[in-house]
Amino acid sequence: MKTPHPQPLPVPPPARRPYHPHDVAAVASLATSLADLDVRTGEAELTRAGTDYHWYSPVLTERLHGRRPDLVVRPRSLQEVVRVAAACARHRVPLTPRGGGTGNYGQCVPLFGGVSLDMTGMNRVLRLEDGWASVEAGILMHELNRVAREGRLRGDGRGRQQLRMWPSTERIATLGGFIAGGHSGIGSIRHGILADPGNVLRLRIVTLEETPRVLDLQGADIQKAHHAYGSNGIIVEVDVALTPWVEWQHTIALFDNYSQVLQCGLAVGAAAVQPQRPIDVFQLSAVERRITPYYAGLRQHLKDADALFAQVCPTTLPAFEACVQAHGGRVVVQGTESQLLAQGLPSATECAYNHTTLEALKTDRGVTYLQVAYPAPLNPALVAQQMQRLGDEVFMHHEFSQAGGELVAFALPLVQYFDEPQLRALITGFEADGCWVFDPHTWVLEDGGMKQVDLQQLDFKKLADPLGLMNPGKVRAWDEQVLGIPGGQL
Ligand code: FAD
Fold first, then answer.
1. What is d(CA 276, CA 278) in angstroms, rounded to the nearest whole number?
2. pLDDT by residue for the chain (490 residues), tens digit each?
3. What whole-number distance in Å separates Cα of residue 262 and Cα of residue 367?
4. Residue 213 contacts residue 222 (beta carbons within 8 Å)
5. Is the CB of 180 inside a 6 Å radius of any atom of ligand 1?
């Protein structure tokens, strides 16, 4: 029996913020000053700009309901971004950057109205070099991959390249949004997480001030704005690392039990993180048999089995298959992305990360999810114990990745949702097992993925957004340490 959400709505905080939410006069003056830009105020557009994929969480769906901007501005150049930033500072109107709107934490939902800055109009490839590209931040990662693969800017079609990683939302998410709101993805088993050195090379940032500055962050300074939810500067340009293109073979291997899948994943992963990469994989995702039936397009192939989805370099496919066989499995689907799509099958990309949750939610709105990192190396016996303990409440899905040069694994388990206390109890249980839970049922930066105040990011916010107008309400440290109000309040 599902019970309604029992939590009372939060009490509004004291009005210490430097703006009035939905200030009609300020917004009207702002709109007038930007009248020659692409400014939208239509109902449908405002509602869309108040939406992202936070609907995965019943908690966020309820809490963020009705939150939306007062206007949407879609800049087409650095100069236009600077004008919007200056106008927001002058009129004390909040600004929330938006890319593809695919974040799951309500990251780009404006909590207090103001401007939703739609960055998708800034989508040009500025330079394409061996090993890196310079792009505008609103480019879709799929489009950047296409350009890099074709080597189009040089016109010779040689030196085909690709991004080192992308979220499973590659087709609809922007690179700037991935850097500001994401963590890792397809490719991370080979190249590490976004925060690992060498993946992101430079961020160009516009500050939110009456006279905005344009700053370049490089090296370790990139962490000042990475995964800051667009709260401390507008990312306008990115230099991002590329790697030589590989025609990845998308494979599905089936096993008789989930422990075999995890054991095989550990063996493949251990080979994949070696410098010589005896098994070279770009993705390695384990999904148990209670989830696989949700993949509508794969039912005839998956049949009551536990599955390993992988993208494998063709030259190491024999070694991969041998490893699968050694762990009691068999490869049942194999082909390039375009071959699979031509057969009406999904790519392995769209069977992984939060696409797994999406597949389930398409037919079952009674589920939600958690994000659980495990101590390295992953212990399949611990996972087996958890599955035993949690029974039909939790279905398992693990992603293998590399972080800081080490093979790691984290789960995005599906949860049969009852209420928020149930989620809190599950989180406590995983933490008691020695796992770390990145709570996807909060809009507060520190309460989700970060777990602690990042003083470097806070200091950078004081510099890049001194008025506290950027994506307000998302950064607990700003509210508590600078405004002196409780964090996490709406
Ligand atoms: P948005 O959702 O539009 O924005 C994300 C955050 O970045 C917001 O706080 C926004 O204010 C800020 N932002 C956007 N653009 C800028 C900018 N130019 N300057 C400053 N701030 C900016 N995430 C992963 O990390 N890995 C995954 O594999 C993954 N898989 C997913 C699968 C599904 C089905 C879904 C729904 C989500 C998934 N996500 C994943 C979450 C999300 O898709 C990614 O993080 C994605 O890269 C976000 O990009 P976006 O353009 O949609 O950003």
1. 6
2. 333 444 433 443 445 778 888 999 999 999 999 999 999 999 999 999 999 999 999 999 999 999 999 999 999 999 999 999 999 999 999 999 999 999 999 999 999 999 999 999 999 999 999 999 999 999 999 999 999 999 855 555 558 999 999 999 999 999 999 999 999 999 999 999 999 999 999 999 999 999 999 999 999 999 999 999 999 999 999 999 999 999 999 999 999 999 999 999 999 999 999 999 999 999 999 999 999 999 988 988 888 899 999 999 999 999 999 999 999 999 999 999 999 999 999 999 999 999 999 999 999 999 999 999 999 999 999 999 999 999 999 999 999 999 999 999 999 999 999 999 999 999 999 999 999 999 999 999 999 865 677 899 999 999 999 999 999 999 999 999 999 888 888 8
3. 23
4. no
5. yes
Give the pair of three-digit tokens for residue 194: 């976004």
For ligand 1, say whether the CB of 355 is within 6 Å of any of its atoms.
yes
In three-state secondary structure terms, 333 is strand
How far apart are the CA of 356 and the centre of ligand 1, in A?
16
- Alpha-carbon Rg for the chain, nearest whole angstrom, is 22
Residue type, position 490, single letter: L
59 Cα: distance to centroid of ligand 1 (angstroms): 19
Residue 215 burial class via C-beta count within 10 angstroms: exposed 0-12, middle 13-18, buried 19 and up:
middle
Distances (CA, A) of 50 to 20, 54, 97, 115, 271: 18, 10, 11, 11, 44
Which DSSP string corresponds to 119-147? GGG---EEEEETTEEEEETT-BHHHHHHH
Provide the residue type at 397 as one letter. Answer: H
**Cβ contacts of residue 340 below 8 Å, gap of 6+?**
250, 333, 346, 347, 348
Which two structure tokens, joined as six digits, stand for 169? 């939302």
Cβ(352) to ligand 1 under 6 A? no
Contact between 348 and 310 (Cβ < 8 Å): yes
- What is the strand order of the sheet 367-369 is part of? 367-369, 414-416, 394-395
Could you tell me the strand order of the sheet in which 71-73 lies? 39-40, 71-73, 115-118, 95-98
Q: How far apart are CA 226 and CA 241, in angstroms?
A: 15
- In this structure, which residue's CA is closest to atom 43 in ligand 1? 102
State the chain's maximal CA–CA distance in angstroms.
Answer: 69
Q: Could you tell me if the CB of 168 is within 6 A of ligand 1?
A: yes
- 401 in ligand 1 pocket by Cβ < 6 Å? no
pTM for this prediction: 0.94
